[in-house]
Amino acid sequence: MTLVITPIYAALTAFIFLTLSWRVIAYRRANLISVGDTGDKNLLKRMRAQANCAEYAPLALLLLLMVELAGAPAIAVHLAGAALVVGRLLHAYGFASTPQKMIFRQIGMVLTLAMIAFSAIGLLGHALL
Fold first, then answer.
1. What is the pLDDT of residues 4-42, one digit of tens each?
2. What does the H/E/C string look like for 60-123?
3. Residue 86 · residue 72 · CB < 8 Å
C-alpha cells in the first residue's frame, strides 16, 4: 500500500517543529545562551513550545500512519491530519504570543488531543471488530 496522505501531514508537522526549533536557536544565538535557559522566561517559553510539539507530534503521526494503513477513508485521514496540523499551529501561536493567547493554546491542545483520542478509538475498534 502506498502512503499518500500521512506524508503530507508529517511534512507539515515537521515544518512546524523546525520553525519552533529555529526560534529557540535564534534566541539562544542573539542572547548568547548556550545551555539551559539561565532563567530567561522568553527562552523558556520558546523551549516549551518546541518541546510540547516534540512531545505530542510523534504519537499523533504514528497514529495517523496506522489509521491510513488500516484503510480508513481518505476523508477521515485528512480530517485527523488537519486537526493535528491546525492544533499544533494554534498551540504554537498562542504560546509564542506575548502575552500568551490562552484561547489559541487551549483550542490547539483540544484539537491535538481529540485527534489522538479519535484515532486511537478508531484503531482499537478496527482491530477488535
1. 999 999 999 999 999 999 999 999 999 988 888 888 899
2. HHHHHHHHHHCCCCHHHHHHHHHHHHHHHHHHHHHHHCCCCCHHHHHHHHHHHHHHHHHHHHHH
3. no
pLDDT at 59: 98
CA quadruple 33, 36, 37, 38: dihedral sign: negative
Query: Which residues, at least 6 apart from 98, have a Cβ–Cβ distance to it below 8 Å?
Result: 42
Residue owning grid cell 492544533:
87
Q: What is the largest CA-CA distance in the chain?
A: 56
- All cell numbers assigned to 49: 513550545
Q: What is the pLDDT of residues 40-68, one digit of tens each?
A: 899 999 999 999 999 999 999 999 999 99
- The model's pLDDT over 90-122, given as tens digits with 9 standing for 90+, comes to 999 999 888 999 999 999 999 999 999 999 999
